[in-house]
Amino acid sequence: MTTTFEALLPGTERALLHRVAVAQSEGRAPSFVGAVVRDGALVWSGSRSCVDGHAPDADTQFRIGSITKVFTAVLVMRLRDEGLLGLDDPLERHLKDTGVGEVTIAQLLGHSGGLAAETPGQWWERSSAALRPGLPDVLGEQPFLQAPGRRHHYSNPGYTLLGSLVEAVRGVSWEEALRREILEPLGMGRTTLEPVAPHAGGWAVHPWADVMLPEPSEDLGLMAPAGQLWSTAGDLARFAAFLAAGDERVLGASTVAEMRAPAAPVGEGDWEGGYGLGLQLVRKDGRTLIGHTGSLPGFVAALWVSVEDGLAAIALANATSGPLTGVVAADLVRIVAEAEPRFPEPWRPLPEAEADEELLALTGPWYWGTYAYGLRVGAERSVDLEPLRGAGRRARFRALPEGGWVGLNGYYEGETLRAVRRADGSVSHLDLGSFVFTREPYAPADVVPGGVDEAGWRGL
User: Fold this and answer.
1) Phi first, then psi: what are they for 287, rounded to 5°?
2) How confident is the model at residue 272, as a pLDDT?
3) Contacts of 212 (CB under 8 A, 6+ apart)
4) What is the largest CA-CA distance in the chain?
5) End-to-end CA separation in angstroms for the chain
6) What are phi and psi of 216, to 5 degrees?
7) DSSP alpha helix (H) spans, 171-231
8) Secondary structure (DSSP) of 327-385
9) Contact, 320 vs 201, CB < 8 A?
10) Are residues 225 and 68 in contact, defined by beta-carbon separation less than 8 angstroms?
């Protein structure tokens, strides 16, 4: 029997609204909107406001600040997928005379290009774009704080360069590319460069008194690809669904998954936060969240996606500081995940065509020296290799057309696994990047590098 649950349970909805109410009250926000996406659909939204009867809804625009960067990154990845550029290309191969030398496109996407966090001169979020008419004004005379590629250092000018790259390669404005290639295909008609009613006004709340001051709303000019956009909880719900599963009209699932991977090497389970290709990555409540936070004077915003849970959450507020939208969005995901955990997909046997006796013969225990591993077959002739006891290197492998498999994650990512056969066709051992796996620990055969003592195993 199959049962579907489209709406959230009343108790879950109450818990979500309570979290938003606490966030609005404790964060002293004029208004606060929260929303939850489950399996690609907006299933809940709620809000609180300081003005009775005038609470915003999922169609009210807020400024989303640096969430804009994710849109810019998607545009760059589209160019890559079309073969118009490579991520390891120096920026100046496609965008001349920037003065940033050999900084690569991938380094800019992951904020490891060594560029400064902000522009020189006046605070760019609160001053006229006329002060920065060209890229030299955005970058300044000394754009670098450290050597490119050494470490992650967040850079708003870096995303200005990426926006200009999109314009140079596409031959249209960043705004036109954004509208045509992302907003229209995903049905995001309420995401714009300038506010369109109904929209929230931006406010600064005094840190020591319950009074407010309106914040200016500047056109960011060249800096727009780093933080210009206005959007709604409803539109960001559509974008969250795209970040979870991809959409062939914009980017395929494999490319979106590539964006979600850390841009710098980290050990699995050893990190609490990082950055992919245009996406922030955090570990919270035992789950991995991908997305972005954003802020501009008068607004704070957050969008988090838990791919494993099939959930996403959006939090938007119109205050310069105070509301912890990133924390709240993570809490909205947690509330639903704990109250209404996702049903696993039913177990199903592999298709008949994939029940390969030769492949099945490779399953079961294998030994790298005295380390015990198990090999399991998955869909499309993929295999998993995982330790059977203690610590070890766990990895997934995709089948290669010419035979063998390539590692997809962890220590063995990119490494080749192959079955080495004897002259009679039987399997002698597995070779994984020169490591030999045998059916017995240190099997007495010449396949083990260095050989095996002829006397065999012994006691004390």
Assistant:
1) -130, 155
2) 62
3) 30, 203, 204, 205, 206
4) 86
5) 59
6) -70, 155
7) 174-178, 224-227
8) HHHHHHHHHHHHHSPPPPPPP-PPPGGG--HHHHTT-EEEEETTEEEEEEE-GGG-EEE
9) no
10) yes
> Distance between CA atoms of 433 and 416, rounded to whole angstroms?
6
The whole-angstrom separation of Cα 113 and Cα 125 is 22
In 3D space, the residue among 31, 36, 30 whose CA is nearest the CA of residue 15 turns out to be: 36
406 three-state secondary structure: strand
Amino acid letter for position 94 = H
**In this structure, are residues 365 and 372 in contact, taking their beta carbons and an 8 Å threshold?**
yes
Which of 303, 287, 292, 302 shows the shortest CA–CA distance to 338? 287
Q: Which is nearest to 439 in space by CA: 376, 359, 362?
A: 362
Euclidean distance between CA atoms 455 and 442, whole angstroms: 12
What is the number of residues in the chain?
A: 460
Q: Which residue has the tokens 């500047």?
A: 218
**Per-residue confidence (pLDDT) for residue 264, from 0 to 100:** 64
φ, ψ of residue 366 in degrees (nearest 5): -140, 155
Predicted local distance difference test score (pLDDT) of residue 399: 96
CA distance 151 to 52: 48
Residue 37's DSSP bridge partners are 42, 312
Block means of pLDDT (10 residues each) for the chain, 460 residues, are 67 98 98 97 97 93 98 98 98 93 94 93 88 90 87 93 98 98 98 97 97 95 96 98 98 96 61 85 93 97 97 98 97 98 90 85 95 94 93 92 94 95 94 96 88 91
Which residue in 35, 93, 6 sits closest to 301, CA to CA? 35
Structure confidence at residue 128 (pLDDT)? 87
CA-CA distance, 195 to 231, in Å (whole number)? 8
Write out the two tokens for 179: 């509208």
Nearest to 415 by CA among 434, 394, 393: 434
CA separation for the pair 399, 421 (Å, rounded): 17
What sign for the dihedral angle of Cα 59, 61, 66, 69? positive
Query: Cα(318)–Cα(197) distance, rounded to whole angstroms?
Result: 15
Q: Angle 409-414-418 (CA atoms, 0-180°, nearest 5)?
A: 105
Residue with tokens 């998955």: 378
DSSP state of 262: -
